[in-house]
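Cell division ATP-binding protein FtsE
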Amino acid sequence: MITLRNVSKRFETRHGIVTAVDDVTLHIEAGQIFGIIGYSGAGKSTLIRLLNGLELPSEGYLEVAGHELPKLTTAQMRTARRKISMVFQHFNLLWSRTVEENISLPLEVAGVPASERQQRVQELIELVGLNGREQAYPSQLSGGQKQRVGIARALANNPDVLLCDEATSALDPKTTNSILELLSDINRRLGLTIVLITHEMNVVRQICHRVAVMEAGRIVESGPVLEVFAHPKQEITRSFIRQLTGAEDTADQVIAHLRKANLPGVIIKLTFIGNQSEQPLIATLIQRYQLPISILHGSINYTSEGAFGLLFLHVQGSPEQILEMRTFIESQDVDMEVISS
Ligand SMILES: Nc1ncnc2c1ncn2[C@@H]1O[C@H](COP(=O)(O)OP(=O)(O)OP(=O)(O)O)[C@@H](O)[C@H]1O
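Tokens:
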């Protein structure tokens, strides 16, 4: 559905050349919800502008929904862009138009006759849950309702791809959840490919199937969400995961405290993914090894692809006993790391 091979985008500025997107290679399958996460300045907005044809790459191969965008004429680009829709952080609604009229706008631009427009607008209003608000103006809507209008408008011409540019960043946590649920529902019901850029790991956790982490214009890590959560390779990925678990900060505090108390034993970190998080592993360890084990910190996060859990334990045992325990834990497909001894 979307393929980028060695795509770069450079801008000439007064201070020299800025490489906003640097040698990015990426493939997004049809029907996926794909998250691109990065801090401010990482190049996410430029990447999304490349995907919707608002910018053209300085080099590289770029294909979206069957179109090699850099090769299109202006007229072809206009047609292609009807199938590549955008949802914006600040909604970008027309304030002088009602909900119905905002949603109808892209249909008018595409030349859909008035009679068909009305039926399509009604379908979209139902799809995004705005029944009864047809005649309201944007100023009379909550942030979540405004974003529902933005999503309905983006879906009007039956796009192949929906690009979401920080679509929930201006919303409170509860409204964020309801908009993410709506996007997830649309993905399931329409099989629509969704690419969303964000700086919030929570957004990735809740709805994405796959994620790419961007830093200084590059994709530094990517893969299925659960895999990246469980085995992050880059420090920047770990820092995003800490937004959710806070785990390592807590572990650092606990380790410092245990060191001060001069207690014997080791601290181990267990990482569970999917069904492993439902096993009674701790009870089994205590029964099997008869060692004092205390739970220092635990967290479990549910992603659209299954659960992901972290557990920090303090275990008092000899190095041989710890090694034996490790062999057992790993035979249960749970990752174990000794983080302090
Ligand atoms: N049109 C432009 N001209 C010059 N430099 C640009 C242009 N667009 C982006 N940049 C630069 O490219 C880099 C990446 O910017 P970009 O906006 O894509 O990052 P971002 O991850 O979306 O950050 P933010 O969330 O803050 O928008 C920045 O250094 C930015 O200043």
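Residues 11, 13, 18, 20, 38, 40-46 surround adenosine-5'-triphosphate (CB under 6 Å).
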